[in-house]
Specification:
Elements lengths: L7 E3 L1 H13 L6 E8 L5 E8 L6 E6 L2 E6 H7 L2 E8 L2 E7 L3 E4 L5 E4 L11
Parallel strand pairs: 1-6, 2-5
Antiparallel strand pairs: 2-3, 3-9, 4-5, 6-7, 8-9
Length: 124
């Protein structure tokens, strides 16, 4: 496992929501993996999932009682990315503020980054 390094900034509101989701999915002992994958109208999209396995080249950090995992490959693109959870009259959702994104799409689910060129796809 790579040394501990803060790549993601998880707000208290986001951590509260993640903990709630862990309980709902019976994943209380899991870690939160934050990743970048190809896809979306700007070429890259974010992924978050509960995971039990930590790979040797993963960066691991703990914030607000949540263990966060980011692969070495994704760490450069995600460095200093802030994940928050916003509640409104229309419901709630996670917001991702990535200072490494060159551009984001209109639907807010994908982005472009200089560190990893990707093929743009139509918005769904």
């Amino acid at each position: 496992m790579a040394s501990e390094k803060q790549v993601i900034i998880l707000t208290e509101a986001a951590s509260f929501q993640v903990k709630e989701m862990m309980v709902q999915n019976e994943e209380e002992n899991a870690s939160l993996r934050v990743a970048v994958k190809g896809g979306g109208c700007s070429g890259l999209s974010y992924g978050m999932a509960f995971e039990q396995t930590i790979n040797d080249d993963d960066f691991v950090d703990s914030q607000h009682g949540i263990q966060i995992i980011v692969s070495k490959e994704d760490a450069g693109i995600l460095q200093d990315t802030k994940i928050d959870f916003k509640q409104s009259l229309m419901g709630g959702g996670f917001t991702i503020d990535n200072p490494n994104a060159l551009a984001s799409c209109g639907c807010g689910t994908s982005f472009k980054a200089a560190a990893r060129p990707a093929v743009e796809q139509p918005c769904e």
